Amino acid sequence: MSEFRVPAVDIGPYVEPEQFTDADRAAVARAMDEACSTVGFVQVLGHGVPPSVIAGLADAADAFFGLDPDAKRAYQLPPDVNRGYTPPKSESLSLSLGVESASKMNDFFEAFNVGTAASEFPGLDLPESDYSENVWPSAQFRASVWAYYAEAGRVAHVLTRVFADALGLPSDFFEQFTDHSLDVMRMNNYALPPGTVDLDGDLTGMGEHTDYGIVTVLWADQVAGLQVLGADGAWHDVRPADGALLVNLGDLTAQWTNDRWRSTLHRVKPPIVDGTIERRRSAAYFHDGNVDALIETISTCVDEDHPAAYRPVTVGEHINAKLRGSRAGVLYTDSDRNARRVRAARS
Ligand SMILES: O=C(O)CCC(=O)C(=O)O
Ligand SMILES: [Fe+2]
């Protein structure tokens, strides 16, 4: 069996263009094309996010998740508002895929979501239901989380420029779809108090899913748990290398590229040590695109051997159908292919 590996790509030549040549950038774009075509997950180096900003994010998440359950629940919002606190076992990501979890148990992660708000674009009439305002447990939390949010957003934007080059498109191709991008960051905490862990039950940290948008920038600590479904049909453990951010493609990119690039299935199954869950943390920054952008397969990705596989969809339509699955328990039904891949991997 061939060894599963998440390729590393150093995007330094795009982050600090003046220090590199066009040939350096072309090499990055080629490496990205290879990674996106084969795995759909990439270890990104040279991203330029200061370690102090990452440490600030981790500290803010630790401080919040360390509060009493009641204090955390004060920041819970209705399921149709994708912001604020999500208690453990209130979502089921596999429902976003059209698959019910074997035990019908919800995922045990808890999360805190922040995102882009309509008020950031006073000149545009953006729907508040998508671009909801944030809630902030403290000024310190807000400053630290927002500093990282800005950095992750910058990295996501740089990545779309790498993608455009890798796909042979004009470098600014994605700008028209992302100038008021509906971005959301989910900070995840995988932990259950000692004594509450039912070792015989189905312990899913986060159920299998694909991400919904264009690209995800994922910071994760190095505790095991993240698993990626390889082209070989098996689940593989993935841990970020020192200093790396994990990057994976979402459904909209698979759709744009007619599956030349992969929106890779992944899930989280944190290890159990001495009868308790080894705590794990992550923060997924979802770069989803403008709510009103129409995603149509890129013409260079369609030919006789690769007929167009998807009907055009707006970002808002797709993201909301998916969120109704994960957050509101309404099974998503437009993804037979992915649901089949998950069932095949289970058996
Ligand atoms: O915790 C992780 O490493 C993955 C999280 C994830 O897949 C998500 O939030 O969509
Ligand atoms: Fe994900």
TrEMBL record:
Domain Fe2OG dioxygenase: 181-289
InterPro entries for the chain: DIOX_N (IPR026992), IPNS-like_FE2OG_OXY (IPR044861), IPNS-like_sf (IPR027443), Iron_ascorbate_oxido_reductase (IPR050231), Oxoglu/Fe-dep_dioxygenase_dom (IPR005123)
Alphabetized UniProt keyword annotations: Antibiotic biosynthesis, Iron, Metal-binding, Oxidoreductase
Keyword Oxidoreductase: yes
Listed pathway(s): Antibiotic biosynthesis
Keyword Transport belongs to the record: no
Family designation: Belongs to the iron/ascorbate-dependent oxidoreductase family.
Name this protein carries in UniProt: 2-oxoglutarate and iron-dependent oxygenase domain-containing protein
Lineage, highest ranks first: Bacteria, Bacillati, Actinomycetota, Actinomycetes, Cryptosporangiales
